[in-house]
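Quick illustration, no need to memorize.
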Amino acid sequence: MKRILIVTQHADKFSKLAKGLSAENINDVIWANSVEAARSAAFGLMDLIIIDDNLDERSGLSIAKDLIRVNALAQLALVSELSPEEFHEAAEGLGVLARMPPHSDEKDAERLLNALAALS
């Protein structure tokens, strides 16, 4: 079982992704709707942290930098509307597992879980 933290104030935007991540109750999906809640949750054993592109007036990249300091072992996936090239440049050095589209779904969940499994 993987522990997955979704950091967003728009849970409805992530409902399909969460459904795919927790299908058949294989994984434990935890929600955080603020940066502070994300920091607290990230102290626990998290396998994956998915960060929305804007939360508490901060970019997902900025939040990722904070959460890496809290839990450097968790893999990160960031929602971003940047082009793949721009995202690569902006996220370089953060060890981001994946760039997520703004309205991720079950197929994105499968892609994320496969990428996570490949690291094991």
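The mean pLDDT is 92.
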